[in-house]
Amino acid sequence: MPVSKFSVPEKYRYMNGFNSYNETEAIERALPIGANSPQKAPYGLYNEKLSGTAFTAARHENQQTWLYRILPAAAHSPFEPHEPSTYNTNPESGKLHQIPNQLRWDPFDLDETVDWVHGLHLVAGAGDPTMKQGIGTFIYAAGKSMDLNTAFYSADGDFLIVPQHGTLDIRTELGYLLVRPNEICVVPRGIRYQVSLPEGPVRGYILELYQGHFSLPELGPIGSNCLANARDFQAPVASFTEDHSGSTTHTLLSKFNGRLFAARQTHTPFDVVAWHGTYYPYKYDLGRFNTIGSISFDHPDPSIFTVLSAQSDHPGTAIADFVIFPPRWLVAEDTFRPPWYHRNTMSEFMGLIHGDYDAKSGGGFKPAGASLHNVMSAHGPDSETHLKASTAELKPMKVGQGSMAFMFESCLMVGVTEWGLKKCAKVQENYNAESWEPLKVHFKRPETLKNEKNGTDGKKPDLGAWVGES
């Protein structure tokens, strides 16, 4: 069965489907029939609309959800700056290092002293959340559950969360998600949530999308199925708490243009009794990805491994693609089977959840580590992988067993933060020296050209012996 084997069992119920119109109620008949905003909502609830797109966005892009809650989200004190001298995840252009070097990081450290909110570290980014343009790439590492009376949201963008170590028990306004390594989840902009750590410290990766939302990639001639199938995405069912006596103070934290703000309220933010719509958090098991590949020759473009995509205004060019490299069979004949050497107009940030990545056998790319090959920075298999792949017997073989690598790919030139380049102290200074500088010259001039100057004497060399034709 194509599902991941998790050490932590699932404990929640979900609704299935990607970008589906869902409705769910924790109490029967809490959803109004027909109307969205009746004069009096059932059970004395408040009607509230949550808009993830402009009202007039095209129907196929429009994302809105109606919430029926005990008190509206607006019922809190004014926000005030919180930890202004220390908390800043804004990719301010003046503090980003746009460099062409290939970069690779050793595994990032766990940090058992902080919670989810304070465990976010911006590694690289591009654009400006105030203009709703660009992306941010984060490492998260935390060892404490968030306070039970605290909730957090990002006004800057959608969080695509990729756990590498530890389990996230995420309580959102719309219900619960249990997210384990080899699963991903997306928490859209503005949705309030709280992260608990039932199995101890956690670590992983986040791609924050400042513009638009993720969608499934078009399948074109592949047809109607394959890659990430819509039915395998899971959304939470409604769940709520009654805590409105006024005796408990709850803190609401907002990441707003990279800065942290705090407001106080005397009621729980997790009081949505029912909801319906298309704007909600969701998760996906990467083990369910239906991988395709060549069954004749050549290595296809890695776009065939795209799970989610956020398109720019130019169709086919993504602000962000989430791509995985799962276990798969290689059967291509007379083919160099690993990913080829490459220079790309896109930037490529890679991470490793577990196992070994088949294109890097030198040992420097490890779980919880990362690499960045920026716009037009040359990259490809290391010298050891090239040698093995060039001389291997080309029989059907399965690669990536027990492994899951991924890539955040973007059309943007990303800059690296000071934390990512220096403060984290994880950049491998010998990345090039280990990977590509050892590559050897294998070129041999044909015998007929050995004593000639590039064949300029007018003689036509017989190339059959060295290009495989006569």
Q: How is this structure best described in words?
A:
- This protein is mostly beta strands and 470 residues long.
- A hairpin with a 2-residue loop joins strand 17 and strand 18.
- It is globular.
- The strands form 6 sheets. Strands 1-16-20-13-10-15-8-7-28 form a 9-stranded antiparallel sheet. It has a 6-stranded antiparallel sheet with strand order 6-25-24-27-22-21, with no helix packed on it.
- The chain contains 4 helices and 28 strands.
- It has helices spanning 383-391, 418-423, 431-435, 464-467; strands spanning 14-16, 22-25, 46-51, 64-69, 80-81, 103-105, 120-128, 133-142, 150-154, 158-165, 168-172, 175-179, 183-187, 193-196, 202-209, 233-236, 250-256, 259-265, 272-277, 282-285, 306-311, 318-325, 328-330, 347-354, 370-373, 397-399, 404-410, 415-416.
- The chain starts with 13 loop residues before the first strand and ends with a helix.
- Residues 463-470 have low confidence and may be disordered.
Chart the SSEs and their pairings:
Layout: E1 14-16, E2 22-25, E3 46-51, E4 64-69, E5 80-81, E6 103-105, E7 120-128, E8 133-142, E9 150-154, E10 158-165, E11 168-172, E12 175-179, E13 183-187, E14 193-196, E15 202-209, E16 233-236, E17 250-256, E18 259-265, E19 272-277, E20 282-285, E21 306-311, E22 318-325, E23 328-330, E24 347-354, E25 370-373, H1 383-391, E26 397-399, E27 404-410, E28 415-416, H2 418-423, H3 431-435, H4 464-467
Parallel strand pairs: 9-17
Antiparallel strand pairs: 1-16, 2-19, 3-4, 4-19, 5-18, 6-25, 7-8, 7-28, 8-15, 10-13, 10-15, 11-12, 11-14, 13-20, 16-20, 17-18, 21-22, 22-27, 23-26, 24-25, 24-27
